From TrEMBL:
UniProt cross-references to Pfam families, sorted A to Z: Glyco_hydro_1
Active site: 385
Top-level division of the source organism's lineage: Bacteria
Protein name, entry field: Amygdalase
Organism: Paenibacillus amylolyticus
PROSITE patterns: GLYCOSYL_HYDROL_F1_1, GLYCOSYL_HYDROL_F1_2
Length: 487
């Protein structure tokens, strides 16, 4: 048995963005409204209650759609990747990227979601992006749905709560997979698919004041996404047998607050609920514990004849996931202090430091997550999001000395290497984000993740010029050495 000492030859180093946070050009090229276009910027935020910040109602949607401008809606202008992708990809090539994770903006291809024909101008845009990546031998890793659902499907079917959306998503996926079958090998169906349960509008396009039972609607929507993902996986293998199809989970690893068995049990339940999503997409069926969970919460997920067979027959080739922080579970969480996070809050862990946004810094948790996932599924893993959001300062000489980001990335990559030595099969790593983009949870620009700085503030003001941070040179060295040089 080989004792692997480092990352494999051909390890896919790179970076990641999402179309709705980077592209901008919300009213260019025939693109329709997306769910992300509905989310405004709020200057004052409670980072322990981001779900309330992102809560979308019918009134908010009507107000957003009546405001046909990018002002006040940062995801409508992004960082103008739409017009600057060649400049950005050249920087990614300079970094030495082997892969670049991006998403296709669904309403850029089907503006309403249910259109008879795709939007050719949108298809040509991604042709140009993929051709530019090929010029530098950068492999695209494409997410089909990354919080960019067409608003027309939201208004007509209440998003994924309506089973009709399955057909529209499959047609969209078939369209782009056929178009780019010689340009893209790696595909992810849904980004952080568990977000549909955590934040129903962001993940599932569900406007909560239009349903009687949000939890019921969310699990029904999730089931529709599972079926759609399996059908797309089936179609993908028909289009190009060389395609590799992955699922994508926001891995939320939970520790018990104490050794009290009740806290341990609560952590186990929370971890099970998180891994429900990979259980279905990897094993092809719902785990048995969900029967009781649904019964206890009065949930009745409606499954059509043939759904179970579809899930069982068309499972994924690899597992990708995001990892930023760990969480803490307790049977009495009110007894503990609360810290913030991305779409969620958690009990404070006294053993970990926290960022300004309340994220608990836990590199070892990434090793734990990798080992648990590989032990559970024995499929190749891909860390497709991992990074540190921070307020970067531009010095008088124009440099950005983000040693804190280097420290974060170094510690997490070190733990990935340890996991590989533990026997985990790891395909690659794409840090979030490759370049500064609009924050998914807070719509801020000042919460920066990239190793490339973008001159733009929270109100959309700035030159949009790109600058290399100190972490740029460091990450370039990491990639060139295949993870050996982390100094």
């Amino acid at each position: 048995m080989n004792n692997r000492q480092g990352f494999s030859e051909g390890f896919l180093w790179g970076g990641a963005i999402a179309a709705n946070q980077a592209e901008g050009a919300f009213d260019v090229g025939g693109k329709g409204w997306s769910t992300a276009d509905m989310v405004p910027y709020f200057e004052k935020k409670d980072y322990t209650n981001l779900r309330e910040l992102m809560h979308v109602t019918t009134d908010k949607v009507e107000k957003a759609m009546a405001h046909y401008s990018s002002e006040g809606y940062p995801k409508r202008y992004g960082v103008d990747f739409y017009h600057r992708f060649r400049e950005d990809i050249a920087l990614f090539a300079e970094l030495g990227f082997k892969t670049f994770r991006l998403s296709i903006n669904w309403p850029r291809i089907f503006p309403n979601g249910y259109d008879e024909q795709p939007n050719e101008e949108g298809l040509r845009f991604y042709d140009e992006v993929f051709d530019e990546l090929r010029k530098y031998n950068i492999e695209p890793l494409v997410t089909l749905s990354h919080y960019e659902m067409p608003m027309s499907l939201v208004l007509k079917y209440n998003g994924w709560a309506g089973r009709e959306v399955i057909e529209h998503f499959v047609r969209y996926a078939e369209t782009v997979m056929t178009r780019y079958k010689e340009k893209v090998k790696y595909w992810l169906t849904f980004n952080e698919i568990n977000t549909t349960i955590i934040e129903p509008f962001t993940g599932g396009g569900i406007i909560e004041d239009r349903v009687d039972n949000v939890m019921q609607a969310s699990y029904q929507a999730l089931h529709h996404q599972f079926v759609a993902s399996s059908l797309v996986t089936e179609r993908a293998r028909q289009i190009n047998p060389e395609f590799q199809i992955g699922c994508m989970l926001a891995r939320m690893i939970h520790y018990p607050a104490t050794s009290n068995p009740e806290d341990v049990l609560q952590a186990q339940i929370d971890n099970q609920l998180n891994l429900l999503h990979t259980d279905v997409q990897v094993r092809g069926s719902y785990p048995s514990f969900m029967t009781r969970y649904w019964s206890d919460h009065g949930i009745n997920v409606i499954m059509e004849p043939g759904d179970e067979q579809i899930l069982r027959k068309h499972t994924v080739d690899f597992i990708s996931f995001s990892y930023y922080t760990s969480l803490v579970s307790a049977v009495n969480p009110e007894d503990y202090g609360v810290t913030g996070g991305n779409l969620y809050s958690t009990i404070k862990n006294p053993n970990l430091e926290r960022t300004e946004w309340g994220w608990q810094l836990d590199p070892v948790g990434l090793r734990i997550a990798l080992k648990e996932l590989y032990d559970r599924y024995q499929l190749p893993l891909f860390v497709v999001e991992n990074g540190l959001g921070a307020k970067d300062k531009v010095e008088e000489d124009g440099s950005i000395q983000d040693d804190y980001r280097i420290d974060y990335l170094r510690k997490h990559i070190t733990q990935m290497k340890e996991a590989v030595m533990d026997g985990v099969e790891l395909m690659g790593y794409t840090n979030w984000g490759a370049i500064d983009i609009i924050s998914a949870s807070t719509s801020e620009m000042s919460k920066r993740y990239g190793v490339i700085y973008v001159d733009q503030d929270d109100n959309g003001q700035g030159t949009l010029n790109r600058f290399k941070k100190k972490s740029f040179d460091w990450y370039q060295k990491v990639i060139a050495s295949n993870g050996k040089d982390l100094d």
